[in-house]
């Protein structure tokens, strides 16, 4: 069950608006739990201070940390005055994603929320290197929050893999659906949809085999996906009209359906093995994510181990 009672919000240091913090407060008001506003900070001018004494260098670091801590407290003042429990922590670290994952490991956070930026013309979400590292390597779920308000009646779209016989795919499918349904019930009874994409006829086969009938092939593939989707939706009591089996590339089908449904969030599984490798999409996951125009919740398999090691020597306020 998705509990998300120990949330870590990665603060964006470059702007005052913090949609990820707003989303965390939204979740807290419905499911409770704690919130930590977390900011890794590093001033590269620090590298130019080698002529200063160790005490002066330490004072410089502490000064920067204190300044940013006060800034975050100012941004969170409205929530703090409303009684929302928000812990503020600023650390000195030159690799933000490592600092965030190390904090997750050290404090047992069960959800990381981070803001994403939107391309003004394309309306697609822009992911930074830190975003990609978190999606690939963070052991707990990562919620990438779009810098816009949640759409009225926004739905949750769960991308499942129905084409693989690998056992971990099936287990991850079930985890995605189970946790999304649980979260939807706890938060605002969001409508949960399932989607799976199946491939069209390979062109090379159609060309090389004159007797090959593409329509029969397509019907067979679609039939297999429909049967698998039926079994999955029946297992979790999801109505047929909330399930979608579409022909095409996942990086086209999933973002297009999310836009059509006016989905508030897309939920997908990642294994983080080679790049961002979604269990149901292989190496196309990055393309899927690049085309999304809504929030993204990425979950890992239960046995996932992050390649980032815990670190006890990070200096914090």
UniProtKB/TrEMBL annotation:
Q: Print the keywords alphabetically.
A: Cytoplasm
User: Main location per UniProt?
Assistant: cytoplasm
The record's annotation in SUPFAM superfamilies points to: Adenine nucleotide alpha hydrolases-like
Q: Which Pfam families match?
A: Usp (PF00582)
**Where is this chain's protein located in or outside the cell?**
Cytoplasm
Tell me which residues make up the UspA domain.
Answer: 4-146, 170-299
Recorded GO CC terms: cytoplasm
Summary of the function given for this chain in its UniProt record: Required for resistance to DNA-damaging agents.
- Assigned protein family: Belongs to the universal stress protein A family.
Q: What is this protein called?
A: Universal stress protein E
User: What species is given as this protein's source?
Assistant: Mangrovibacter phragmitis
């Amino acid at each position: 069950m998705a509990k998300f009672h120990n949330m870590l919000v990665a603060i964006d240091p470059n702007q005052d608006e913090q949609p990820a913090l707003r989303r965390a407060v939204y979740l807290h008001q419905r499911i409770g739990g704690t919130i930590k506003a977390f900011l890794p900070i590093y001033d590269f001018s620090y590298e130019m201070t080698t002529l200063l004494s160790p005490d002066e260098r330490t004072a410089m670091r502490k000064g920067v940390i204190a300044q940013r801590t006060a800034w975050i407290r100012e941004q969170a003042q409205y929530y703090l005055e409303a009684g929302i429990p928000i812990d503020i922590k600023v650390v000195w670290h030159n690799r933000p994603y490592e600092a965030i994952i190390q904090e997750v490991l050290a404090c047992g956070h069960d959800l990381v929320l981070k803001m994403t930026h939107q391309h003004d013309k394309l309306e697609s979400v822009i992911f930074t290197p830190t975003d990609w590292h978190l999606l690939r390597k963070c052991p707990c779920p990562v919620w990438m929050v779009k810098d816009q308000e949640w759409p009225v009646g926004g739905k949750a779209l769960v991308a499942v893999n129905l084409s693989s016989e690998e056992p971990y795919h099936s287990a991850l499918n079930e985890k995605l659906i189970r946790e999304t349904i649980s979260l939807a019930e706890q938060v605002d009874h969001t409508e949960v949809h399932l989607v799976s994409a199946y491939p069209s006829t390979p062109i090379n086969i159609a060309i090389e085999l004159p007797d090959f009938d593409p329509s029969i092939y397509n019907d067979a593939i679609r039939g297999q996906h429909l049967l698998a989707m039926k079994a999955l939706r029946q297992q979790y009591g999801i109505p047929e009209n909330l399930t979608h089996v579409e022909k095409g590339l996942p990086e086209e089908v999933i973002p297009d359906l999310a836009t059509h449904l006016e989905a508030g969030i897309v939920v997908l599984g990642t294994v983080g093995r080679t790049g961002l490798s979604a269990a149901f999409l292989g190496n196309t996951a990055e393309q899927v994510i690049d085309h999304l125009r809504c929030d993204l919740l990425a979950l890992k398999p239960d046995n996932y181990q992050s390649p980032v090691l815990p670190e006890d020597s990070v200096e914090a306020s």
